[in-house]
Amino acid sequence: MGLAGRHLSRNKVLFFSGALFISLAVGIHLSPYLPSLSLPHLASFLLLPHPVSASASSGSSCVQFLHRVSWSNAAGAADNGSGGGKARAWSWPPSLASACGFARLSRDDASLLLNGSWVMVAGDSQARLLVLALLRLLLDPAAAAAAEPELFRRHSDYRAAVPARDISVDFVWAPFESNLTRLLREDLRLAPRLPDVLVLGSGLWHMLHVTDAASYGDALASVAGAAKSLRSQLPEPPPHMFWLGLPHLVNHMLNTDAKRAHMNGTMVHAYDREVDRRGVLRGEGGSFLLLDVGKLTQGCGQQCTADGMHYDGDVYDAVMHIMLNALVIESQQRI
Questions:
Q1: With 0-12 CB in 10 A as exposed, 13-18 as middle and 19+ as buried, what is 252?
Q2: For residue 335, what pLDDT is reported?
Q3: For 92-104, what is the mean pLDDT?
């Protein structure tokens, strides 16, 4: 398998070999999602280990199949400590993984993939759990365990680094949509550079404290507009943008009366509908690729949550690997 590469602005593209990544073109960053004709330079040439089948490559390509994971009880697993039951394991169906090249990344593979990159995740506690999954992949177990208390300081931001690979990971506490709009319209415009990967998500705090889907939709429209403005007006390539969807809520397990009164399946459906119709997601003309936490949490099931809202680490591990595989697939398709 060959690899040829040329510099693409500040980002670079990487590739699979065998079942996992084994090398990078020049070793840093990822190509943006923009069509190749709009890019000032062409980046690295990327190949998948197996040819993509006609059915998998049609429409929006393999990206649309990334959430088709299966859940099973982990072999020999004991109680997971969540109060729900045994630990669960996730996987892609072998035929789909082979056709599309989906793969779990090792620590080395993920570090190569994100070499020199800045990853920013902004949102509420769901976003924190995604950052924790990423740190558990990038750092050794002792370092990840040491980082967790700092990451979960209440209502605070957090920054981590992987010095050996020059990777920065930021968590920005931004529980409301207005926080995300300000991040896009003000904070990132003042930053010396943009993140290479930007993950945003919101809705749980709005659902609890405002409980109005239409109001949530109006706020989302501002986020969507700010993201489009950021992509179109800045001279450098924009970040890869992901939207962290709402989890499946198990109403009777929620731990306060207010949550049980305001947060239920009907409200989640109404809030999800606003995400679909307010121009947030790429399929609807927006800037973000959906990380469908709702589908993954529902698939894992009630046994994967202790409080009906926050799920076990395996769920966010799946979310993270879906995101990382999407980065590679989208990069390949845009060359």
A1: exposed
A2: 53
A3: 93
